[in-house]
Amino acid sequence: MQNCRLWQVQVRTAPQGKKVASTSLSALHSGLSKVGSLAKSAGSAVLRGTIEVKEVRLSPNIDVNDLNTKCNSARKFIEKGNKVKVSLRFRGREMAHIDSTKHILEDFAEKLSDIAVIEKAPKMEGRSMMMFLTEKR
Description:
Layout: E1 3-13, E2 19-29, H1 32-48, E3 53-58, H2 64-79, E4 83-89, H3 102-111, E5 116-125, E6 128-135
Parallel strand pairs: 3-4
Antiparallel strand pairs: 1-2, 4-6, 5-6
């Protein structure tokens, strides 16, 4: 933010009838009210508990241990109260085997079924299949 300076000119009338101009410098911070309102809104967002969407990316040829690691990171996100977007990205010839890899997302959701539910079922969008998980209530 830039500092904005405002000059105030006060015109007073002297006892003899002459007008005397005196200047005083009042430095105002431009957008100070904006900063205050941002701080207030940020505070209210903390009180509300904003929910972020965290993404976990998988590939069709993921190994079991790698899938477990991704599940653990998604578990941490969900426990913090965030939503998780699980995306399965296809590259090149992997696009020919989409139907045989849908079980990866289903297994992922099954491993997290104790703390999460599927908000959006797995759906193909472009070159990736996506699914959203949220915390159980």
